[in-house]
Design brief:
The protein has about 100 residues and is mostly helical. The protein has one helix at about 75-100; strands at about 45, 55. The protein has a two-stranded antiparallel ribbon.
Length: about 100
């Protein structure tokens, strides 16, 4: 059986730097990015779910129609006043029913 020759792996550079400018890139330096990879510093625009106007994706409220984008961003003051009115009416109905018996 013939012997096969075992090639030793190539030695790394003396300083241990394996960076190859042709194939590697530095994420902090856009000049070294490969083709097709780019930096987009602009914020994305999305359509408002209510009026379809273009708004910044980080907006809490639409500048055109004034509605809040999500329920988490909307103020919570309106629903508590409605519950107070409903409870007062329910108590008055119960009181009127009790007085008529």
């Amino acid at each position: 059986m013939p012997r096969t020759r075992y090639d030793e792996p190539e030695e790394d550079d003396e300083d241990g730097d394996d960076y190859d400018a042709e194939t590697d890139y530095d994420p902090d330096d856009p000049e070294t990015y490969p083709a097709g990879l780019y930096v987009d510093d602009e914020r994305a625009l999305i359509p408002c779910p209510h009026c379809r106007a273009e708004i910044d994706e980080e907006s809490e409220q639409c500048p055109k129609c004034g509605t809040f984008i999500s329920k988490e961003d909307a103020p919570t003051g309106g629903s508590s006043a409605t519950w107070i009115v409903v409870m007062v009416l329910a108590l008055l109905a119960a009181l009127a029913l009790a007085l008529t018996r």
